[in-house]
Structures are given as structure tokens and as C-alpha cells.
Amino acid sequence: MSTSAPTAAGEQAAPSATAPLTLDRLAVVGCGVMGKAIVKGLIDNNFVAPAHVTASVASDDSASALGAYFPGSTIVRDNITAIKSADVVLLCIKPFYVRTVLSEPAIVAALQGKLLISICAGITLAQFAALIPNTRVVRAMTNTPARIRQGMTAVCGGAAATKQDVLLTVKMFQNVGRCIELPETQFDTVTALAGSGPAFAFMFIESLADGAVMMGMPRKIALEMAAQMVFGSAKLALDSGEHPALLKDSVTTPGGCTIAGLLSLEDNKFRGSVARCIEATSRRASELGQPKK
Ligand SMILES: NC(=O)c1ccc[n+]([C@@H]2O[C@H](COP(=O)([O-])OP(=O)(O)OC[C@H]3O[C@@H](n4cnc5c(N)ncnc54)[C@H](OP(=O)(O)O)[C@@H]3O)[C@@H](O)[C@H]2O)c1
């Protein structure tokens, strides 16, 4: 896991000595798949104390389930109460609820002096500035591997956010994986590559296993082998820093079986399909926060 702060270009840099290392009081507005993943990582890493977390959800059922999942934390069904309890507010509701939630009459006053961190796909910093003027907002895009602290997150600060706000957000997300700072112009691509990417990786793992099942391997073994192979290959690419093409070549014996498989993928336009998948997902991500036509 990365432990240093990033530069604007997305490269890791030395952490600032002035940045706070922990959160004091955190409110989580919307605490489903992603909210739970992030808060669990923060609590497990002692980045925030359970007693200093207040989460708000919509339904009674979710509230009682969350109470059992985060013992010692406060679970409410009132966003204003949650926001008032904290210094930092993590917004983890679905994008189509953002306008309604942030248009509550008491919201601007409740948010005064607080940092709002949004993980909502497609909602831009300009849209936040229009909905909650003068609020310090940092936009973050993360992914479900945050559940096991192997997430990939990008962050970008709004006009009112300070450098310290961005640094705190980076440190926060480094508790659940890697985190870098990127310009907002990259966020639709981040949404596709990091946010939606796990779905594509899971489909790849499932397809690999299907091929092995076709050859007679039991599915349980095929799935474990496929997942560990993808995990190991990803870790090798990250740890070695070598270009994937070189790593691929190191597996490919002339006249061997790997090149037979690679050519079969090329015949079926594998690389173009995957690259176009990220392009299509990015384009759709750019439409998410926009009004329906
Ligand atoms: N899932 C991903 O892979 C992923 C990846 C990157 C980013 N994101 C972003 O993360 C955000 C959350 O996604 P998710 O998958 O975690 O969604 P989710 O599992 O559906 O969770 C949404 C949460 O919001 C709560 N909620 C709904 N209406 C609310 C309201 N008016 N006030 C307060 N809370 C409310 C829900 O409560 P109830 O359960 O009571 O309805 C639930 O706890 C989205 O904006 C998405 O774009 C998701």
C-alpha cells in the first residue's frame, strides 16, 4: 500500500509534516457498499475512532444492520444531524440523490466550516459549487477493492478546498489502498478505469475459469487459479514497474502454447475490445451527473 502523498501529476511524493495524520470526527452520508468499505478501513487502521463516526442512511433496515457492523459508531436517518456532528463529511450516496440531499434547506448552514469529500460518480466540482457555495469540497473516485484495502483512488480539490484538505483526503484513502491526486479533467477516465474496472477484471477472471471448466477443471479450482493468476500478474506489474508487453514477452516461448493463446485473443480483437470498453465507460461516466435529455 502506498504511504506517501502524491504530486499534481499523479506521482507519489514525500508526505507533508503539517498534515493531520488522523481524522477527528467523521460523518458518512450514505453508507452502503462503498461507505462501509471506506469506514471499515479507516477504523481498522485507527485513522478515526469508531465513537467519532456518525453515518446516515435512508432506511431503518440499513440503520440497524449498520449499527451491528460498526459497534460504537452512531447511525442516524437524518443527514443534518450527521453533518453537524463532524468536521469531515464523506458523501457516499448514489449520484442521482445528490441534488435532493444537498438541496435540503439546512444543509448549507450545517456544512459551514466543514470539508465535504464526495465519491459520487459524475458529480463535478462545479456542480457542488453551485449546490453548496463556499463549501470546501474534494472529489474522490475509488473502487470496491477498498473493501480489502486494495482500492485505487484519485482525488481532486475544488476551488474552496485547501492543500491541507486534499492532503488529508489522500491520507484518508491511503488507508484503503493507493491514492493519487489528479486533475478533474481525468475523472471520467478514472471512473471507468478504477471505479468500473473491477467489474471488467471480474468478468475476465470468470471467463478464464469458464475456459478451464470447458477443459474439465472443477469450477472452484478454476476460479481460485484464475483469480490468483490475475492477482499475481497485477502485483508483478506494479512491483517490477516493467512494461506489461515485456512481462508478456517473458511468458511467450517461440512456437509455444502462450503465443497460440495470444494470437487467438488478437483474432478476436481483445486489446481493441478492452480499450474501447474503457473509452465507452468514460463517455457514459461523463453523462452521469447531467440532467436527463
Ligand atoms: N459501487 C462501486 O463500485 C462504486 C465505485 C466508485 C464510486 N462509487 C460511488 O459511490 C457512491 C455510493 O455507491 P454504493 O455502491 O456504495 O451505493 P449503495 O450501496 O447503494 O449505498 C448507498 C447508501 O446511500 C444511502 N442513502 C440513500 N438515500 C439516502 C439519503 N437521502 N440520505 C442518506 N443516505 C441515503 C443508502 O441507504 P439505504 O440502504 O437505507 O437505502 C445506502 O446506505 C455512488 O455515488 C457511486 O457513484 C461506487
Please provide a written account of the structure.
With 293 residues, the protein is α/β, with parallel strands linked by helices. It has two domains: 5-182, 3-Layer(aba) Sandwich (Rossmann fold); 190-285, ProC C-terminal domain-like fold (Orthogonal Bundle), CATH 1.10.3730.10. It is 47% helix and 14% strand. The chain has twelve helices and ten strands. The strands form two sheets. Strands 5-4-3-6-7-8-9-10 form an eight-stranded mixed β-sheet, with helices on both faces. Strand 7 (115-118), helix 6 (125-131) and strand 8 (136-141) form a beta-alpha-beta unit. Helix 8 (187-214) packs across helix 9. The radius of gyration is 21 Å and the shape is elongated. Residues 25-122 form the Pyrroline-5-carboxylate reductase catalytic N-terminal domain. It catalyses: L-proline + NADP(+) = (S)-1-pyrroline-5-carboxylate + NADPH + 2 H(+).
Keywords:
pyrroline-5-carboxylate reductase activity; Rossmann fold; binds NADP nicotinamide-adenine-dinucleotide phosphate; disordered N terminus; 8-stranded mixed β-sheet; 2 domains; 293 residues; single chain; ProC C-terminal domain-like fold; 14% strand; 12 helices; 10 strands
Task: Give the low-pLDDT segments.
Answer: 1-17
Bound compounds: NADP nicotinamide-adenine-dinucleotide phosphate
What series of H and E elements makes up the topology? Answer: EEEHEHEHEHHEHEEHEHHHHH
Assigned CATH architecture of the largest domain: 3-Layer(aba) Sandwich
Average of pLDDT:
92
* Count of folded domains: 2
Any idea of the CATH topology of the largest domain?
Rossmann fold
CATH class wording of the largest domain: Alpha Beta
- Category by helix and strand content: alpha/beta
| Strand-residue proportion | 5-15%
Question: Over the alpha carbons, how many angstroms does the gyration radius reach?
Answer: 21 Å
Q: N-to-C terminal Cα separation, in Å? A: 42 Å
